[in-house]
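look at this stuff:

>
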Amino acid sequence: MKKIIFVITMVLMIGATTSMGIASQRKESGRHSYGNKQMQVPLHRWWKLSQASEQLNITPEETKKLDDLYQKIKEKLIDSEAMLQKDMLKLEMQFDSESFDQNKCMQIYKEAQATRTKLALDRFEFALKTREILGKERFEKLLNTFKQFRRHADKKRIQQRTNKMSNPETKKDTKSKSTNQ
């Protein structure tokens, strides 16, 4: 009975932490709290966009530094994400194994959590180094610009969902068009 309860508990914990990990990977941005300030630094090459580059007055030297930083951090993230997926596979296989070992499961789970921590630290390092390159004023401008962009994108997404839900004919029309083609 204790083994069944343990297995159920571990499955629930794995499911919750895995879904949290997947959700954080989808965002492609580092979201960190510093004091009561939320830092959401885009984890892509935003400085390559002419509008962002012009708005923040990014110099060629800063572009080079940001490119180097991005490559360094992105390589770390790719390795850590692969490691996390391997850990989760090992854990899944251990749960399915006839020779179930609670201690081994716990060890694998701890390794997966350490990998998640490393991912978070790497994302935070990107934020810190970006802040160092841009300075306080331009970094805050970047955060505010990205926050406004996210709000606009979220509103647009919500509006699209609302439109789809309130207009069921749209779904029928789309389905009939795809079948007719």
